[in-house]
Design brief:
alpha+beta; Alpha-Beta Plaits; 2 domains; 4-stranded antiparallel sheet; 6 helices; 28% helix; globular; 3-hydroxy-3-methylglutaryl-coenzyme A reductase; HMG_CoA_Rdtase_NAD(P)-bd_sf
Length: 254
């Protein structure tokens, strides 16, 4: 039994249902909390009423898609932020590596993206297609970057892939720092068009770093991404282009 089969056996069945709402059944809350977004800090759910008094303790929870179970795991509330009108956004994370693996195998194997039809982590509406330095909104100066385009087997896999990238930003940043303290991943811009995902790696550079070092760092990130997808999820990823997006990117996409 391979790793994917092991995690699949750990998850309860997902029956068909109308709608695509994702929510979590969490202790102390009488109703499931709707998912607001996914980001690099975790899963963000919105709760009404008073904020929880305790954070940092793992609690048994069940993720739901259209009120049907997606997976059961232990989640920890890492952050609480006011959301207006007496509501709060709760950022939750799986309590350990096994929970993290279970979450992503559930999102991959149970295929909720076929119903959701959009990424859970907000993506960029437009990304420049060259590899030259560019400035983000509110920044004084440009940052160097490299771009790549990846092709996935289908649109739902592309949505999964884009969300997985955002969630694992810290791992990609740590990978960039292996090239020395003068090079660090600052942003990861993503864009989805059909079965393609465009990615732009934006870096902070302290001191002198050659263009070759920057390119090597981004290529290493691409190789790590492809290996993780293949080894953990048996998901084939084809890198279409490096330093520019695919020439046949769809209108309204990349």
């Amino acid at each position: 039994m391979d790793q994917s089969q092991v995690f699949r056996a750990m998850m309860p069945g997902l029956t068909s249902a109308n709608g695509a709402r994702i929510a979590v059944a969490y202790p102390s809350f009488p109703r499931p909390l709707p998912l607001v977004r996914l980001d690099r800090r975790g899963l963000v759910f919105r709760a009404a009423g008073a904020a929880p008094l305790v954070c940092g303790l793992p609690r048994a929870a069940t993720l739901l898609v259209a009120d049907e179970p997606l997976c059961s795991l232990r989640l920890v509330i890492r952050d609480i932020a006011p959301a207006g009108e007496g509501r709060h956004d709760l950022t939750m994370q799986p309590s350990g590596a096994a929970g993290d693996e279970l979450l992503w195998h559930a999102l991959r194997d149970r295929e909720p993206y076929r119903r959701i039809q959009h990424p859970l982590a907000p993506v960029d509406t437009s990304i420049a297609t060259d590899g030259e330095p560019h400035a983000s909104a509110g920044e004084a100066g440009p940052r160097p970057s490299r771009s790549a385009a990846f092709r996935l087997p289908c649109h739902s896999d592309a949505l999964f892939f884009a969300d997985w990238l955002e969630y694992h930003f810290d791992e990609l940043r740590a990978l960039s720092q292996q090239h020395g303290p003068q090079l660090q991943l600052n942003q990861l811009e993503r864009q989805v068009a059909d079965d393609e995902v465009g990615v732009r790696f934006v870096y902070d550079i302290d001191g002198h770093t050659t263009r070759h070092a920057l390119t090597d760092c981004a290529r290493e990130a691409c190789a790590w991404i492809e290996t993780e997808m293949r080894d953990k999820f048996a998901l084939p990823v084809a890198q279409e282009r490096f330093s520019a997006f695919a020439a046949h990117a769809r209108a309204g996409g990349m």
